[in-house]
Design brief:
Bound molecules: alpha-D-glucopyranose
Number of strands: 18
Strand content: 5-15%
Radius of gyration: 23 Å
Helix content: 25-40%
Shape: globular
Oligomer: single chain
Structural class: alpha/beta
Length: 542
């Protein structure tokens, strides 16, 4: 382990979407014991840390992001003892563990929200959330705010005497927003942060970070009728990226700094541009933040370079490293995105899904992996991208579980297509995800037989082998070296990271000659004299 700099400045963190990783108890849903049993795979893959999506008690209205108790484990996922064993095993393998903190909202089944409903209008129990009277004599929502899953951000309560106040939920109605001006809310989350850090986790991912403060008085946002949630475009919005959110992060940072071992806070923050993003990682706030501009960039050299340069320029003044991310449990898998003509992504499953050429998408995804892992800073990998999994676009409507599907009036299928359980082994579902005969919570395509981890482990040309090789090489490479662009012509991204690593990505339609550029270390295709379109190579400069 390198003691000169905190691990998270260059870490490759693997996102485990727990429900879909590995099912240890045979109920069709992934769980902590299942994850624990697969830790050797992750250590062998060569990642530095795991971020595990919520394992807390939850009614699962939003896949566990509706938390009913922030300091316990849902019995479907395991027990606190299972989590302790997971953390111990991971550490023994040299892999760190990051947990997910959902603090913008609770589940509607959280004891606080139940108490708030029972107590009625005006009661102090309601002050932890946003309960307000409606407009138009009570029958219209208190303002024009919208939900990330479609429709208004307000739901009206029906009390014993009939309809009464409304409550705010920027996500699903089962996820009421907490009012972070309530001292009780802030104090209780201090205890939650300490609870997990005391258990030895290495970091905390802050869910929906920009949502956690609202402009007092809750003024209208000016959303046009039918507007969709587009936080990357919003400026001066009263319910997103409001300045007061930063007070929360400073508070948590003070807590985290009192612990040993370089504990990490990383935020999920989809905001307007890299300068706004850099505010989340000022020296007394969070350590890193996901870079969604990179994820949303199309397969286009100019667009990618603009994002890389813009990110590095915005983060340099605050001293935070970049993190590069291509996929997550909220986004269309990038094999599919890059296979489309218009290859940029929309957040939160609102893609309008033009057809994808998956062979092209996979070529580009493999090249993108080498690009991502060569950039300065850290990277986040989403489970299954190392297998080159595509989005499952033909899930039957009755299988869909993402609240987006219902909330959008069946116009947006939502995020289930990137959440299909992993194929581990064998030639038929459940592909080792669960014991044979068990039906996974989302159906796996039969065509995934050729994409299992087992099948790919044996094939040196597989995507899994490419990721393993890249992650191994990356550990030997000079992670501190800055990026220097080279000009190899239009639609070619080429840069050096010091004297030891040169990365060339060919986004053009013609082959790029490699003569004189260096010795090939690793290629996403089969680099010979020239680099084929949609492939990338790592070289040791000549
Ligand atoms: C984040 C999570 C997403 C969840 C939302 C509400 O965006 O990544 O899955 O639906 O927050 O908690």
């Amino acid at each position: 382990m390198d003691h000169r700099r905190p691990w998270w400045r260059t870490a490759v963190v693997y996102e485990v979407y727990l429900r879909s990783f590995a099912d240890g108890n045979g109920d069709g849903l992934g769980d902590v014991p299942g994850l624990r049993s697969r830790l050797p795979y992750l250590a062998d893959l060569g990642v530095d840390a795991l971020w595990v999506t919520p394992w807390y008690p939850s009614p699962m209205a939003d896949g566990g992001y509706d938390v009913a108790d922030h300091r316990d484990v849902d019995p479907r996922f395991g027990t606190l003892a299972d989590v302790d064993a997971l953390v111990a095993d991971a550490h023994a393998l040299g892999v760190r563990v990051v947990v997910d903190l959902v603090a913008n909202h609770t589940s509607a089944e959280h004891p606080w929200f139940r108490a708030a409903l029972a107590a009625g209008p005006g009661a102090p129990e309601r002050s932890r959330y946003f309960f307000r009277d409606g407009r138009a004599g009570g029958s219209a929502p208190p303002n024009d705010w919208i939900s990330a899953f479609g429709g208004p951000a307000w739901t009206r309560v029906t009390g014993p005497g009939g309809p009464e106040q409304w409550y705010l939920h920027l996500f699903a109605p089962e996820q009421p927003d907490l009012d972070w001006t309530s001292p009780e809310v802030a104090d209780d989350f201090d205890a939650t942060v300490r609870f997990w850090l005391d258990r030895g986790v290495d970091g905390i991912r802050v869910d929906a970070a920009p949502a956690m403060a609202k402009v007092p008085g809750l003024p209208d946002a000016g959303h046009p009728p039918g507007a969709s949630f587009a936080s990357s475009e919003w400026v001066g919005n009263p319910h997103w990226d409001v300045d007061e959110v930063h007070e929360v992060f400073r508070r948590w940072r003070r807590i985290g700094d009192a612990y040993d071992g370089d504990r990490l806070f990383v935020s999920e923050a989809v905001v307007n541009g890299p300068e706004r993003l850099a505010r989340y990682v000022r020296p007394d706030e969070l350590h890193t933040t996901f870079n969604f501009d990179y994820l949303k960039a199309p397969w286009d050299a100019g667009a990618l370079r603009t994002v890389v340069d813009g990110t590095l320029a915005a983060l340099a003044p605050v001293g935070a490293p970049a993190t590069w991310v291509l996929s997550s449990h909220d986004e269309t898998r990038h094999v599919t995105r890059f296979g489309r003509e218009r290859s940029g992504a929309a957040v939160m499953g609102f893609d309008d899904a033009p057809p994808a050429d998956l062979a092209r998408g996979l070529r580009r995804a493999r090249a993108a992996a080498l690009l991502t892992l060569a950039l300065p800073g850290g990277a986040y990998l989403y489970q299954g991208e190392e297998l080159g999994l595509p989005e499952v676009e033909d899930l039957p409507a009755e299988a869909l579980q993402d609240p987006t599907w219902e909330r959008s009036g069946h116009t947006a299928r939502g995020r289930d297509g990137c959440r299909v359980p992993l194929p581990w082994s064998g030639d038929a579902p459940p592909f080792g995800f669960a014991p044979d005969g068990v039906t996974p919570w989302l159906p796996q395509p039969a065509s995934w037989a050729s994409l299992t981890a087992e099948a790919q482990r044996a094939d040196p040309a597989s995507t899994l082998s490419l990721y393993r090789a890249a992650l191994r090489l990356r550990r030997e490479l000079p992670v501190e070296e800055p990026l220097t662009w080279l000009d190899l012509g239009a639609d070619v991204l080429a840069f050096d990271r010091g004297p030891a690593l040169r990365c060339v990505v060919n986004l053009s339609a013609r082959p790029v000659p490699l003569a004189g550029l260096g010795r090939v270390l690793l290629g996403s295709g089969t680099p010979g004299e020239a680099l084929a379109p949609d492939t990338a190579v790592w070289l040791a400069p000549a």
